[in-house]
């Protein structure tokens, strides 16, 4: 009878009751919300992007926010956009992690990051609108099946001065081409083959009257793009031509890749800060589509008589792809870039790591085995130390409860569990066991004195044990806080779960274990 009363008193003890409440709440949180995993467990992609130029603090915050919005608009979840500094150069880098994506989605994410998102609309060599003049309404994109089975569109409207400027430019230009560009190669020298040069002289639309300027002239006046036909110039001559014109980039198009390599080496040796890129036609790609891809050109669109005479402010970006799925993905990408706004500078992805969901699943199993192995090791170690199952089982059970509560908290805050986070949980188990041993040793060292003196001795020993525990927890939290606030990436996950485990131990599981251990030892 006395034993039953003792168990009832133990269960109603506020420290044990608090443990039970948190345990039930954590199990419920995991059941309802589930657990979210980082890329090394759930699969995903981690990309490191570097800006083209040094950034101010305000620009860094703006780019991080725009990237987050862009990826959210694209429909991705479990996104992390962080900043860090290159330890060698001090430059700002952007670390983008997206969990639970396929390889194709990973490629789309890279494209989204590298798209600066600067939109230009040009007529007769005059830019009349930029991205800030464009409004893109929610879900105004999709497949344009009336044009072709794999055609896509993204709709938008113009407003303010841009619309006024367009209305002035379009007068008398029925049938003339309107060019729309997204991230065109501004201030570049484009070296092309004879056939590409001939194609770029076209794009004239269907003029009712007058003669539109050829595309080469239009992009030259609008974006300071110089197009030259390759006539056996040496790499040195091309570099000299680009530097004399003050160009930022040399683009080698539809020419032997050997020429691109020579130009690249020439630029590396001269250290001029000019970039170089290379384009070749894809299989089955027609000349006009190839030119449009080089220039990031959408269109050109022919001005109908209705548009010239009317006052509509609605436009569309259109294009096509090999399949319906690819067409929809392209429309979604353009829509995401336009909705999120342009970045103050272009980003280049310098590192990418993709982990497939299948490989991540195997990591999850290994992490589970490691966790169970740690708990079994704790159980056996405590038993061999004290030779009492009534102490070994509560210690191991308390560690298990601690893990469940940590996972419940992670589920509530939607923290992505990665391998370092799980390592932090295992580290917290080890720290917790040490502290439970301190409590147990103090309880076992109780005096044989009776009455008040015995109780006072126990209270002193418990106070001494918890002083040691609090001191240990404080130093651990301080050390982990440094990792949490001054580092990004894997160390952050380790720090979060370690701090969470220490706090849960000190505030919930350690006091409850002390009460349980006191009750069990009192039965001897």
TrEMBL record:
Domain spans labelled Protein export membrane protein SecD/SecF C-terminal: 347-508
Keywords: Cell membrane, Membrane, Protein transport, Translocation, Transmembrane, Transmembrane helix, Transport
SUPFAM superfamilies (UniProt xref): Multidrug efflux transporter AcrB transmembrane domain
Membrane topology classification: Multi-pass membrane protein
Subcellular location: Cell membrane
Claim: Magnesium is one of the keywords in the record: no
GO biological process, one term: intracellular protein transmembrane transport
Gene Ontology annotations for the cellular component aspect, listed alphabetically: plasma membrane
Database matches in InterPro entries: SecD/SecF_arch_bac, SecD_arc, SecD_SecF_C
Record field: transmembrane: 12-32, 367-384, 391-413, 465-488, 494-513
Predominant localisation class: membrane
Gene3D superfamilies in the cross-refs: 3.30.70.3400, Multidrug efflux transporter AcrB transmembrane domain (1.20.1640.10)
Complex and partners: Part of the protein translocation apparatus. Forms a complex with SecF.
Its biological purpose: Involved in protein export.
Family as reported in the entry's similarity comment: Belongs to the SecD/SecF family. SecD subfamily.
Name recorded for this polypeptide: Protein-export membrane protein SecD
Organism, scientific name: Thermococcus waiotapuensis
Encoding gene (name): secD
